[in-house]
Design a protein that fits this description.
heterodimer, A: mainly alpha, 2 domains, 79% helix, B: mainly alpha, Four Helix Bundle (Hemerythrin (Met), subunit A), 6 helices, globular
């Protein structure tokens, strides 16, 4: 087994481990939904980062490529959350979906 | 004095990203695809936040168990894809094809399990426009999100098959296999968001 294959296997094990933690949290209803969402998203972003860095080798690409791809994506996705206050407004109006 | 433009610039200049054009193209596609999935996920979360009757229908057995096995299949297929790219880097053509076939197997297992999960929910009366428990938007967002993801997995399996065939015959370069890997890892990455947001946030209370 080469060093690289061993790294991949470790990343795979970490990803499975994080998924396992998510499952236990969901099964035991540890958090309130709001806290759960935060924890799940943090774990998912960590998993996405591991996949991008080690499986997709983004970490070993030139920095210009990373800077071209990631910041605009994060900006666009963040901007979509600007509609969220409206969801709370609808909820308090008592509108049913 | 150095001239501002050199002959290299007139011939296309230097590659600013130091990746091939195919690979850059795949990365740009993946960014735009992330926005597609991001839009669907965020609009699903929006509908969920705005509804006071969002259903939480997923029991540990069978739905969450199924979804966990699906996650395992997809994660493992990502590992075999990474190993395929690694084998191709070392010029091991047989190993590349073997690992790519294993990756396809993982993808097919995922689709089969997911189709069963869909049939189970359809059997319980979930439709894109209605369901027995609450907000009808639940069915719409569930089928749209997981359906689009499943379409990506099916497309990915076909794509892998085409590239694996080329790899066996030696007509595909290492970069082709790497690009194929990028796509496959992306499909896995998106599932890392769909699984918690759709399934784990809607686990039925005990």
């Amino acid at each position: 087994m080469t060093t690289q294959s061993r790294t991949y296997t470790w990343i795979w094990a970490y990803l499975l481990g994080l998924t396992g933690i998510e499952l236990i949290l969901a099964y035991r209803h540890v958090f309130t939904p709001r806290a759960m969402l935060l924890v799940l998203m943090l774990l998912s972003v960590a998993k996405a980062g591991m996949i991008m860095n080690w499986f997709m080798h983004l970490g070993s690409e030139r920095v210009t490529l990373v800077l071209t791809l990631l910041p605009p994506l994060i900006l666009v996705l963040s901007l979509m959350f600007s509609i969220f206050p409206d969801a709370f407004r609808l909820l308090h109006m008592g509108a049913h979906g | 004095m150095n001239s501002l433009l050199t002959s290299a610039d007139w011939n296309g200049g230097e590659s600013p990203y130091a990746v091939g054009d195919n690979k850059l193209g795949m990365w740009l596609f993946l960014v735009s695809d992330s926005i597609t999935f991001g839009t669907l996920l965020i609009s699903c979360m929006y509908a969920r936040t705005a509804s006071d009757n969002w259903p939480a229908p997923f029991h540990m057995s069978p739905s969450i168990v199924f979804a966990s096995i699906m996650t395992f299949c997809l994660l493992t297929s990502s590992l075999t894809m990474a190993l395929a790219v690694s084998a191709s880097k070392h010029g091991d053509r047989a190993g590349t094809v073997r690992y790519m076939l294993l990756t396809m197997l993982g993808g097919v297992a995922f689709v089969v399990l997911h189709a069963r999960e869909w049939m189970h929910l359809i059997g319980e009366g979930v439709r894109p426009w209605s369901n027995p428990w609450g907000s009808p938007l639940f069915g719409a967002s569930f089928f749209a999100l997981t359906g689009l993801h499943m379409l990506h997995v099916i497309t990915g399996v076909i794509y892998l098959g085409v590239v694996a065939r080329g790899a066996r015959k030696g007509t595909r370069t290492h970069e082709d296999i790497e690009i194929c890997g990028l796509y496959w890892h992306f499909v896995d990455l998106v599932w890392m968001f769909i699984f918690p947001l759709i399934y784990l946030m809607s686990v039925a209370p005990k």
